[in-house]
Design brief:
single chain; Spore Coat Polysaccharide Biosynthesis Protein SpsA, Chain A; six-stranded mixed β-sheet; two-stranded antiparallel ribbon; elongated
C-alpha cells in the first residue's frame, strides 16, 4: 500500500480502540474519543460507520461507559457502533477491517490526542500509516492506521502503534510523511506540524492541555497577548471548557462590555471604562481558543469576534478624546481622534491589500514583520499606554503619542506593501487566500 493510492469513493469508516482506562481522561472538557469525532466533523469528513471498542462489560455498564466517552446528544448524530464483547483490540480491528470490504478504515487509539487535520488528510488520501514521535513532553508514541485491505502479514503486538511498527518493518504499510501535509495555519499565521501522541496518565493529560493551549496562539501578535494575558486566559479556559460554555457566549459578552466602555469613558467614569476594556482585552483571547480547543469554530463566531475587533478601537479613541476635551468637537484633541480613525482604517486597508497581493499576512511575512506586530498601534498597545498615562496627569500627551504611533504604523505598513508588492507567495494547501490581518 502507498500513501499516494486514491481513497475509496465510499465514505471512510473509523475504528477507535477505547479499551484502556486512559480513554476516559478529559482534555479541555472532552475525552480523546470525543475529540476524534468532533475533529472529523469539523474537518467535514463524513463517515459510514464509527466502531468504538470498549472493555468487556454488560450492556448497562457499556452504555454508561459510552456516555462518559461521548455525550449522548452528540453520539446520536453519528453512526456509532459500540462493541463490548471483550475481544482483543487487534481482533476487533480485523473484524472492522473485514466489515469495511474495501472501504478506507481509519484506526486510532481512544487514549490518543490526534491532530484533526491529520485524520482528514488520511481520509482523503487513502491507504497509509501515520506514526509519529510524541509532541514534546506530552505523552507516548501512538499511530493512526489508514487501511483499505487486510495487512497480509503477521504483525506483532496488540496496540495500534505496535501493529503499525510491525507492518512498516515488513513493508506492508508505508510510513506517513509529515511533509505531505501543509502545516501552515492561516488564521494563526504560523506553521504547526501534524501531531499525535498517547496519554498514559493525568500528568500526560496536563501536558497535553498545555501543548494544545500554546498551539492555539498566533505566530505573530502583540506584546500583551503573548506575554501578559496567557496566565489569565489559561485559568479561564479550563473551567469554561469543563462547563462547555459556547465561545459565542463569551463573544457576545465581550460585545456588551466593549460598547459599555464608550459611554463610561465619555462621561469621565474612567475606572469603570478601564474595567470593561481590560476585561474585554483578556476575554478576546479566550473565545477564539475556546472555539478551536473544543471544535466549535463557526463563521458566525469568527465574524462577530473580528468584526468587533475592527470597529471598536475608533469608538474608544473618540470617547477618550471627548472626555479629555470636555466635549469640544472643535478642539485639536477631538480633531486628532478623527485623524486617528482615518489612519487606523487606512492601515487596515493596507494590511488587507498586502494579504491579497502576497497571499500571506503582513504580520508574518518576514521576521521583521513578526517583531513589529508585537508593538504596532493596536488596541492592546494603546490601551496600556493610556491606562498608565492618564493617572499620571498625562492623558492629553499620551493620547497625542497614540495618534502619532498610529500614523507611524500606517507609514511602516505602506512601505512594506511597496517593498513586497512583487514577492507573491504560493497559496498554502489549506486554502489560505486572505489570511486574517489581526
Amino acid at each position: 500500500m502507498s500513501p499516494s493510492e486514491p481513497s475509496s469513493a465510499r465514505r471512510p469508516r473509523v475504528f477507535v480502540d477505547a479499551t484502556r482506562p486512559q480513554s476516559g481522561l478529559v482534555v479541555f472538557g472532552m475525552t480523546p474519543v470525543e475529540r476524534h469525532l468532533r475533529g472529523l466533523v469539523q474537518q467535514g469528513v463524513e463517515v459510514e460507520e464509527i466502531r468504538i471498542a470498549l472493555p468487556a462489560s454488560s450492556a448497562e455498564a457499556a452504555a454508561a461507559a459510552a456516555r462518559a466517552l461521548v455525550p449522548e446528544g452528540f453520539a446520536q448524530t453519528l453512526p456509532i457502533r459500540w462493541c463490548h464483547d471483550g475481544r482483543a483490540p487487534r481482533a476487533e480491528l480485523e473484524s472492522a477491517l473485514a466489515d469495511a470490504r474495501g472501504t478506507l478504515l481509519l484506526a486510532v487509539d481512544g487514549d490518543a490526542i490526534v491532530d484533526a487535520r491529520l485524520l482528514a488528510h488520511l481520509a482523503k488520501r487513502g491507504a497509509a500509516i501515520a506514526a509519529s514521535d510524541p509532541a514534546p513532553e506530552c505523552g507516548a508514541p501512538t499511530a493512526v492506521l489508514a487501511l483499505t485491505a487486510p495487512l497480509g502479514v503477521e504483525v506483532k503486538g496488540e496496540r495500534l502503534v505496535e501493529i503499525a511498527a510491525s507492518a512498516v518493518e515488513q513493508g506492508a504499510l508505508a510510513r506517513f510523511n509529515a511533509a505531505d501535509l501543509d502545516g501552515y495555519l492561516t488564521r494563526l499565521r504560523r506553521t504547526l506540524p501534524p501531531y499525535l501522541f498517547c496519554l498514559r496518565d493525568a500528568a500526560d493529560r496536563d501536558s497535553a492541555e498545555r501543548f494544545l493551549f500554546w498551539s492555539n496562539y498566533k505566530g505573530s501578535t502583540d506584546f500583551f497577548t503573548r506575554y501578559v494575558y496567557p496566565p489569565f486566559v489559561w485559568r479561564a479556559l479550563r473551567p469554561l471548557t469543563r462547563w462547555r460554555v459556547h465561545p459565542n457566549v463569551i463573544t457576545c459578552f465581550n460585545i456588551v462590555i466593549t460598547l459599555a466602555a464608550v459611554p463610561l469613558w465619555a462621561n469621565g467614569w474612567w475606572v469603570s471604562g478601564f474595567v470593561c476594556a481590560w476585561g474585554m482585552s483578556v476575554l478576546d483571547s479566550v473565545d477564539g481558543k475556546l472555539a478551536r480547543l473544543q471544535f466549535k469554530s463557526s463563521e458566525l463566531g469568527h465574524n462577530l469576534d473580528h468584526g468587533l475587533d475592527l470597529v471598536h478601537p475608533p469608538l474608544w479613541y473618540f470617547a477618550w478624546a471627548w472626555a479629555l476635551s470636555g466635549g469640544d468637537t472643535a478642539s485639536w484633541l477631538f480633531q486628532s481622534s478623527i485623524w486617528m480613525a482615518a489612519f487606523y482604517f487606512g492601515d487596515r486597508i493596507v494590511t488587507r491589500v498586502f494579504t491579497r497581493r502576497t497571499n500571506r499576512s503582513i504580520h508574518a511575512f518576514t521576521p521583521l514583520d513578526v517583531r513589529m506586530r508585537t508593538v504596532i498601534s493596536r488596541r492592546n498597545i494603546n490601551l496600556p499606554l493610556f491606562t498608565v498615562g492618564l493617572p499620571l496627569g498625562l492623558g492629553t500627551q499620551t493620547f497625542a503619542l497614540i495618534v502619532a504611533w498610529q500614523v507611524a504604523t500606517f507609514a511602516f505598513h505602506a512601505v512594506r506593501l511597496v517593498q513586497c508588492w512583487n514577492r507573491r507567495e504560493a497559496l498554502p494547501a489549506n486554502g489560505a487566500g486572505a489570511a486574517d490581518d489581526d
